[in-house]
Design brief:
Elements lengths: L1 H14 L11 H11 L26 H7 L2 H12 L5 H15 L29 H14 L4 H8 L4 H10 L29
Helix pairs in contact: 3-4, 4-5, 4-6, 7-8
Length: about 200
């Protein structure tokens, strides 16, 4: 009797009909239905005028790392401007690269990591000293021009991004070079080529 009862239960379970639960709408279908039910419209008057709002121009100034990575004589000039807080303007960079050429030439402007033959902090009072890197040289050039009273006119010219002739006259009149560049007689106005320094100089 027990076996018969168990068999009846098994038969009854097998006989149960499986009823599937109907699926609801998918997420996409629900979103579509919501948009349809809550659609909005906007009507613009034909008299409305379109106004173009001018946007301010913007520019980016290269930073220390990007200038060092590029590593040219022009980048060195810009780095000095950056350390001194002066504009990296065409006037300033033109004068500074000319000045570097007068001091060390172009092909080896990085000579002794001292492009301006600067004695400030280089261990060479006559500008014959050496810096550990061009980055340090740029810092010392900026510091010398800012802190030595004899170079105040040069600093003022760079700070105001003066005309090249004004800044150059200030350099010639200063005690930077004992020969004063022959008051401009030993100064070249030929465009300075872009030259990258060797690896390890920065």
């Amino acid at each position: 009797m027990i076996g018969a009862g168990v068999g009846a239960v098994v038969v009854a379970l097998i006989a149960v009909t499986v009823v599937s639960v109907p699926k609801g709408p998918s997420v996409d279908e629900q979103l579509t239905a919501y948009i349809d039910a809550n659609a909005q419209t906007l009507t613009v008057s034909p008299k409305a005028e379109i106004t173009v709002v001018p946007r301010d121009a913007y520019a980016a100034t290269p930073g220390i790392d990007s200038l060092k990575a590029s590593g040219t004589n022009y980048d060195f000039a810009k780095l000095v401007m950056l350390y001194a807080g002066w504009p990296q303007s065409d006037n300033n960079i033109t004068v500074f690269t000319r000045w570097m050429r007068q001091e060390n030439g172009v092909d080896d402007w990085w000579n002794r990591n001292n492009p301006l033959n600067n004695g400030w902090g280089s261990g060479g009072g006559g500008g014959t000293g050496t810096y550990d890197s061009l980055d340090i040289a740029a810092q010392n050039a900026a510091e010398a021009l800012l802190q030595n009273g004899g170079y105040s006119q040069i600093a003022a010219a760079f700070a105001s991004s003066a005309e090249t002739s004004v800044t150059e006259a200030a350099i010639w009149a200063s005690p930077w070079a004992t020969g004063h560049y022959d008051n401009g007689g030993h100064w070249s106005y030929v465009e300075v080529p872009v030259v990258k320094s060797p690896d390890g100089t920065w």
